[in-house]
Specification:
The protein has 346 residues and is α/β, with parallel strands linked by helices. 56% of the residues lie in helices and 14% in strands. The longest helix has 30 residues.
């Protein structure tokens, strides 16, 4: 269907425009091989399996993710294989290893890409920054992506509740002339609420900016700053956390998700309303230069280089744990852990 956002019009797809029955028909002769069972692999593979598609999983044997796949009902030798065997068996290879894992496994995977195969991504990183990743795919296969706008955990949870995460889709290389049908079939098959078009480049640019910005990086920075100011001014840890995090995540954000921020402004106290209207532009203006700098760092490839360099460092896991421990052991999130445990349960 066509959707208009002001002067901008885009086409989106739901099951009304592209039914599950159509998706199953398009992929009826395909073996979908999900390579990787980490962040997106479980949700996408289980949803596809439950929707009746022919799915196998490839994962490194005896890893944590391999054992998770076994617990999720995948059977070794039947629909659970090593990465190499799953790569050989599949006709649509869903490359869902981490970005670092994709770089590492690529020299092996490319040996299994044959005429008529399809290569699927859920992130534009590997191909957009191929000078750094060294992922240069052959010219004789279809290449496309579906990128759910949420975690694999959310994708699975919402699917089981009869809902879906919205997803973007992109076509990188259409050799067969049937890429659009394939990408929409998988997008519908994994349980997308609706699908909107993008490019590999735009997907990774927006994704990296979002992760570093409002989705995780900026929100943690704002949490930390407000909490610190309240504590410096003598407010208790409980009061500071509740006013900074708890009320936002437990009360306001679900309402914003359901009704929008404009509705929230209309339906709060006049005191809150006046303050929010007076201050939001100051926060926008103060952070706008940071977001512009962030976008430039992403689009220049600097962020990709940093990620690859740090992830390939031999001590990366230890360094990562140290950085995460700083967050976990901070007063802000120690207080949060306690308050979460005290939430009323009926």
């Amino acid at each position: 269907m066509k959707m208009k956002f002001g002067s901008f019009e885009e086409t989106i797809f739901t099951q009304k425009e592209f039914s599950m029955k159509t998706a199953q028909k398009v992929l009826k002769t395909e073996i979908i091989s999900v390579l990787g069972y980490g962040v997106q692999g479980p949700g996408q593979s289980l949803n596809l399996r439950d929707n009746g598609f022919s799915v196998i999983v490839g994962q490194r044997k005896n890893s944590i993710s391999w054992n998770k796949a076994l617990k999720d009902g995948w059977i070794e030798g039947h629909n659970l294989f090593s990465l190499e065997e799953a790569s050989e068996r599949g006709t649509i290879l869903m490359y869902l290893l981490s970005d670092a894992g994709q770089i590492s496994f690529w020299p092996t995977l490319k040996q299994y890409l044959n005429d008529g195969d399809s290569l699927y991504f859920s992130h534009g990183f590997g191909l957009t920054f191929n000078k750094q990743t060294k992922i240069f795919p052959p010219k004789n296969i279809d290449i496309f992506l579906v990128a759910p706008k949420g975690s694999g955990t959310s994708l699975r949870r919402l699917f089981k509740n009869g809902q879906g995460v919205n997803s973007s889709y992109a076509i990188y290389q259409d050799v067969s002339g049937k890429c659009l049908d394939k990408v929409l079939s998988i997008g519908i098959g994994i349980g997308s609420g609706y699908l909107f078009e993008t490019t590999f480049k735009n997907e990774v640019y927006s994704d990296l900016v979002g992760e570093r910005g409002t989705l995780m990086g900026a929100i943690q920075g704002i949490f930390a700053a407000q909490y610190q100011v309240l504590r410096e001014k003598g407010h208790s840890p409980s009061e500071s956390f509740n006013e900074t995090v708890e009320e936002l995540t437990q009360s306001l954000m679900p309402l914003v998700s359901e009704n929008g921020m404009d509705w929230m402004y209309e339906n709060c106290s006049t005191t809150a309303q006046r303050g929010a209207l007076d201050w939001w532009k100051q926060f926008r203006d103060s952070t706008l230069p940071v977001f512009r700098k962030l976008y430039n760092e992403v689009s220049s490839g600097n962020e990709a280089k940093k990620v690859i360099d740090k992830n390939s460092h031999p001590n990366y896991r230890r360094q990562l744990k140290e950085e995460l421990d700083i967050l976990k052991k901070s007063e802000l999130w120690k207080v949060g852990e306690l308050i979460r445990s005290l939430r009323s349960k009926k």
